[in-house]
Amino acid sequence: MCAAAEHGRAPRRFIIARFCRRAPWHRPCCLQPGMKTTRWRVLIVDDHAPSRAAVAEAVGAQGGTVVGNGSRVEDAVRLVDKHRPDVVLLAVGLPDGDGIEAARRVMTALPCPIVLLTSHTDPDITAGAVEAGVLGFLVKPLRPEELAPALEVAVSRFRELEAVRKENEELKRKLESRKLVDRAKGILMTRMGLTEPEAFRRIQKTAMDTRKTMAEVAQALLLTNTMGPLSTTR
What we know:
Elements: E1 41-45, H1 49-61, E2 65-70, H2 73-83, E3 87-91, E4 93-94, E5 97-98, H3 99-109, E6 114-118, H4 123-132, E7 136-139, H5 144-192, H6 196-210, H7 214-231
Parallel strand pairs: 1-2, 1-3, 3-6, 6-7
Antiparallel strand pairs: 4-5
């Protein structure tokens, strides 16, 4: 099952493991026989002790390590901050709220891959979970063979989304820098009668001489231009 692509954002891909066991984007197990490397560091937040134990057993059997356990929404962010897990498993029902709210808090404070544990499939729960940042689903009672595909998809999709987010942030930074430099060029062209290429080279040379970025030089010039008239007023 795939979430619809949102405008301007990379589509989130998630699975309800029981129904998507052979999804084409599954990746093979990276843990080979005899290897001691931990496959995932997993945090489990579930107030149902038998369920928590079953999930922990499945994680261990698949080469992962449970680094922490919680039972409430308020535990989620605290334990993610403490343990910095590779992936978080959240039960949809918790005593002080639900897993969707816990996912929302985690994704706001310390984004990481999240898989929701649910006893039934519900369109409203699925939609709310995806909106909150959940990247995978596992249906209770857990079938151990479904764990690895769900976790691997969540971790893989999270990495992809993080790469897109960082790329977008870099593009935004470059655009803002360009706007600053363009405004600074305009000031130099007006005040000093420079051509646009001359104004650009002036900013560029100043940046090199002062070991600053062109955006920083442009920002300083804009600030000086704004404060200039005030600085001469007594």
